[in-house]
Amino acid sequence: MLIWQNKNQLKHLLMRVRIFDDYDSLSQATASEVINLVKEKPHAVICLPSGSTPLGTCQWIVKNAQQQETDFSKCVFIGLDEWVGIGKENPGSCSYFFYHHFFDPLKIPEQQIFLFDAFAKNWSEECKKMDKTIAAKGGIDLMIVGIGMNGHIGFNEPGTSFRLLSHVTDLDETTKSVGQKYFPQKTHLSKGITLGLGHLMKANKAILIANGKNKAQIIHKALKEPVSEDMPASIMRKHSNGFFYVDKEAALLI
Ligand code: PGA
Question: Mean pLDDT across the chain, nearest whole number?
């Protein structure tokens, strides 16, 4: 259980933590955030993560968008990250996830999709290109992120500067081993390319989503440990419009 030194700190944080009964209601609420934003602002710039956690969100967006005929034809989608050297035909790649679960079913026009190239010849140029795109589109309206077992956001591994924008990074050992779950066979993972926490801080709204008992410990740390670059997800507490959406299982220790 958390021991809160300061009641105001607790009150402030709880306002930013929404606890849902289960994964499905968490996914539905996150999907509603995206759909409502797109209805309100058709040209919205939205950053999405890939992985196990956002799958339900994508499925709900696709379902609701089809039922309510939400028009996604003008908004812009930015992919949070990608494994370096893993192509979009590989089912473990982030691009595969985005196309398979989101862009293809929603028929998002290609010119509105901005993903990192896992095979870029010049990484610095690839990062600059993404940063310039985001700036040219007016910045990110809504940034949805997951949380890794080591507290990472995207591939912002523990120790990464909160100020960085897009960058290539060496993957943490935890990320390399946990990441195997996405791949049909053992895959060599060494580097990742990712948006930075500087992007997160500049986004108009940020939502970190987490579900399941295996995330309870890291959610506890992200909320309770001092805000520090050693615990990347703790930066969410510094965001003036940042929210934690967690299911009951992930909230077990808070
Ligand atoms: P997951 O990944 O949603 O597959 O648990 C989260 C992350 O590593 O950011």
Answer: 94
Q: Is 152 a catalytic residue?
A: yes
Give the residue extent of every domain in the chain.
23-244
pTM above 0.90, yes or no: yes
51 within ligand 1 shell (Cβ under 6 A): yes
Helix (H, G, I), strand (E, B) or coil at 82: strand
Question: Distance (Å, rounded) from C-alpha 95 to C-alpha 35?
Answer: 21
* CATH among 3.30.390.30, 3.40.50.1360, 3.30.413.10, 3.40.50.2300 for 23-244: 3.40.50.1360
- The residue written with tokens 């028009």 in the block is 71
Mean of pLDDT values over 213-232: 97
pLDDT grade, residue 15 (50/70/90)?
Answer: confident
What is the spatial order of strands in the sheet that 45-48 belongs to? Answer: 17-20, 242-247, 205-210, 142-145, 45-48, 76-79, 113-114
Q: For residue 149, which atom of ligand 1 is closest to its CA?
A: 8
Q: Is the pLDDT of residue 9 over 70?
A: no
Report yes or no: 140 and 45 within 8 Å, Cβ to Cβ.
Answer: yes
Distance of alpha carbon 119 from the chain centroid: 21
Q: Look up 101 and say whether it is catalytic.
A: no
Does any ligand 1 atom lie closer than 6 A to the CB of residue 52?
A: yes
The alpha carbon of 3 and the centre of ligand 1 are apart by a number of angstroms equal to: 27
